[in-house]
Description:
- The structure holds 2 protein chains of 2 kinds.
- Chain A contains 3 helices and 4 strands, in the order αββαββα.
- Chain A is α+β, with helices and mostly antiparallel strands.
- Chain A has a domain at 29-100.
- Chain B is globular.
- In chain B, the strands form 4 sheets. A 6-stranded mixed β-sheet of chain B has the order 6-9-8-10-14-7. Chain B has a 3-stranded parallel β-sheet with strand order 1-2-3. A 3-stranded antiparallel β-sheet of chain B has the order 11-12-13, with no helix packed on it.
Amino acid sequence: MDIHELKKQSDLSYDIAVAKRNALEKAHSRLVVVYNEHIFRADPETINLVKTLSEVHTSPLYVLDSNKNPVEIPDPSEFLQVLVQRNQEAISSYHQMSKTFEKRND
Amino acid sequence: MFCFDTSETKYHKVLERCVVLAKKNLKLPITVVTNLDTFKKIKPLGFINYKFIDPELGNTKSGKEWNNVDRHMAYELSPYDTTLVMDIDYFCFSDNLLQYMDTGYDFLISKNAHDLTNRNSFDLRRWSMIDMVWATVFVFRKGRKAKQVFDMIKYVKSYYSYFLDLYRIRDRRFRNDYAFAMALEQANGFISYDTLPINLPTLPPDCKVVKIDDNGIAWQYKDQINFIQNQDVHVLNKEMADV
C-alpha cells in the first residue's frame, strides 16, 4: 500500500471517528426527557432504578432528577414507558447511523 | 433572539436561517429583538414579533464591533411566561429544546459544549475560579427567582471589571457567558444551580460552513469535510451568513 492510500484510509478513519462521536452525542442529547416538570436521562441507570423500584415498592416512587432534586412519580409504569421509549428512539437512531459508518469503511 | 447587524457581519442573514429552522422544529412563537437598521434588511419571515431597541455599543471581538451586551434585558423584553432565549447562530435541526419549556424550573442554562470536530477545544475555556456557562441557549420562567437572576446579571454588568478580577477571569471583553455564570454563582449562594443537562453541539470558529439545508450542516476543517443531520448546532464562524 502506498503512502497516498494510507493517507486516504487515515482520513476516512478520522471522518468516521468524528461522525461516530457526534452521533453518540446526538443520542445523549435525545436521551434527556422531561417528565412531571423535571428533567431525567433515559439511560440504563434511570431505567433500571425505576424498573426495580416499581417491582419492589408501592406507588408513588421518589427519584432524583438530573439536578438531584427529588421528584414524586405517581405512575411508575407510565414513567418507565416514557423512559424506555425515549431510550430506544435515541439508541436506534444511533444504530442506524452506525450502519452507515460500516458502509463507509467497506 | 437578539440580532443587530454590524459594519462587518450581516447578522440578519444568520437570523433568517435560524428563524426558519426554529419555526419548523420548535413551533414556538418567536420574538426578535433588533434595531430599525437591521430590521429593514430582514426578509419577510412570516408571523414573528419584533421589539426594537438601540443596542449598547462599545464591545468588540477580534477588533470587530460586537453588539452582545443587551441579553440582560431578556426578562423585560420577553412577552412570554416561559422564554427560550437563543443565539441566532444556534440552529435547531431537532425539537430537543422544546421539552425544556415544560419544566418547573425558573432558570436553566448549560455549562457544557460538545466540539463537533472532536478536538475538545472548549474544555480549555475554564480560565477562571468558577464554572462557565453557555448563554447561547437558556430558558427562564417569569417569577421572583428568574427576576433575581436577571437583576444580578445587570449588577454584574455594572461592575464587570470588578467581577472579572474577583473570579480571576482572563478575558476582559464583556461576554454573556461570563456575566451569566458570575450572576448565577452570586444569586445562588455560591454553591450550585440547576442546569440543562446537555452539551451544546458547537462548531469552532476555524471551521468553514460549506453547506446548510433544512436538515443539517456540512463544514470543512483543514482538508476534511464532515456533516451532521437532525442535530442542533452552534456555529461560531460568522462567515456562514454568506453560505
